[in-house]
Each structure stands twice: as structure tokens, then as C-alpha cells.
Structure prediction request, 376 residues.
Amino acid sequence: MPTDYYEVLGVARDASADDIKRAYRRLARQHHPDVSGDSDDQEMFKAVSNAYEVLSDPRKREMYDLGGDPLRGSGGGGPGGTSGDGFTFNDIFDAFFGQTSSRGPRSRTRRGQDALLRVQIDLAAAVFGTTQEIQVDTAVACPTCNGGGASDGSDFVTCDVCRGRGEISHVQRSFLGQVMTTRPCPQCRGFGTVNPHPCPECAGDGRVRTRRTLSIEVPAGVDSGTRLQLVGQGEVGPGGGPAGDLYVEVQVAPHPVFTRDGDNLRCTLTVPMSAAALGTTVELETLDGPRTVEVPPGTQFGEQIVLRGLGAPRLRTSGRGDLDVHVEVGTPTMLDEEQRDLLRQLAAARREEKVVGPTAEQPAGGFFSRLRDKFS
Prediction:
């Protein structure tokens, strides 16, 4: 068993650093070899010096209190005692384990987590922007303890296990000698203090969950997947710590007429066969209101008419995309005899009674070629 250094100095185990220093000076003067040549006094002076070396160093004292002896296997010899090779105990310990100073207790006040919320808006709101109210279930500071975590009139007290350090050390023997490991204190969980009377509403956490209503500004031009950051609107941290951020992810609901392709909008316009051949104008209801679409004569199936500047605004830049109108030609399916005769006369006038394969003069897939195929 290690020597009882407290007994050697004649102090209690909870003695302060000043008490230990006073006891050492008193005993050192009494048993110093220059004062008494007695061999017993010389051994006592050595024991007093070793005891003071251990108990005056907080690190060595902690190791000793946990059952180890920092001087075992060393030469002792007063504060800063060395081994036979001239290395101090601290040199050997640092060589194996690096920095040995305590990291100290953890802070109870920490930043809160970020939160993510998804909100759905329609296409018009995504194009022109909108203001929308959302409800958020998140953690806020406890109104009873104002985030402190302790009940009214009480406070945190120093942990009696780790003495406020937030961590404890364990010494064990190995083939390398005495090995000391450090881990968070199990009683205070590394905080260095304990809460003897936690707040009854938040159970000492300093925060409670509640539902809040927020008003958010959705900028023009957002698309599905766009995330809006609301700084400081996330969860309040433990111990009344600063709140994290709230991220709102936008989802754009499908539109019955328009689809989106980047900054451009797309729609399909179906016109009759005769209107595609002769040309026409169509009133199209866009997100910006009614617009007149000019369908030129001879418009083919699948052609595109572009309405400039009627798409979605470009985020982080100026300008808007376009509205692309895809034209589909509607082929009549229910014809009476008179309409059939008129189409036969048209086909005869255009010498299109008989369908032939594609040639250089008559590309495959022409409108009237498909029309003949329809009636063949």
C-alpha cells in the first residue's frame, strides 16, 4: 500500500494547499539534517519531502487519492523528485500520454440544433413570391426557469465526486507501470456541477417544446428543393443556449396547365387541323394574365412558340425565363359524308390521294401524309 502522505504531514485528507505548505515547513525545520544529525530525523525529513511533493501537486495528489503513488519506483527527494535516470514523474507521464492537464468541466449551455420544415406552395406563388405563415414544433427556453434549469431559489452545486473538474481519473498497474485514464464524471456527466433541485417544468433541461407560428417571405423564382434559412429560429440549446437555424424546404405543387423546366415554363396548345394549316390566333391564359398567341399558317405538329419573359424569375440574377408553347394539331376523328368529300377534294387538288414512301422532295412525317394515313 502507498505511504499515507497525509499522516506523514499530519493533515486531514481535505486539507487545503496552504495547510499542506505550513505543515511541510514546520516539519522540515524540525527534521532537517542541518538541525539534527539523527538518522531517524534524516529518514523523517525525506518522508516529509516526498509527502509534500505529492500533496502540493494537484495532479499527483489526485492520482494518490485514487489509489496510486506517483513516487513509487522513483527516487523521491523532495519536490520535483526524479527517477534513477534523471527524468521527473511528469516527464515520464507526458512521454506516454502527452498533455496531462485537465480539460475542465463541460458547459451546460450549448447551441441548439437546426430544424428542417417542408412547405408546399402553388406555381404562381413560386413564380411571383409570397408571404406564408407556418407552424413549427420546436424547443424554446423554459418560461419557468428562463432556461437555467434550476427551480426557483436554488442553484447548481459543485459535484462532490469530481470536485468540479467534470472528469475522474483511474489508476491501474500495467507492464509499463502505473497507467492513469480519464473519463467524464458519472455523477455530473462531465459538467462539474449537479442540479439538486431541477425545474419541475423542464426537468432541468432549460427548455420545453411548444408550437410557434412564423411568417416567412418566399422570394420570387423558388423551385422545388429550394431551402430558405431563418437564422436563430431553430431549437433553443440546452441550458438556455442560443437557438439553431430553421431551414424551410419549398415544394411546388403540380399545375394543371404549366410545367417548369428551370426558369422556363411549358404548356401544350392543341389547334384544329384547319387552323394549323391556315393560321390563327389563340387567347392563352398565362400566369401573367391573358396573352394572344399567333399560330402561323402551316404550323406542324410539335412546333414551339416562345413567349419571351413569361417564365419564372431567375434567383440571384435579374430577368425571367420564357413560356414555351408546344403546338399539337388535332386530327378530326368523327366526319360526316360531306366533310369526307371535302377532304377527298382537297387531297385530289394536292395530288395526295395515294401515300408514298419518304423522298427527298416529300419528307416523311408531313402533316397531310399523316392525314392520308388516318383515312386509308
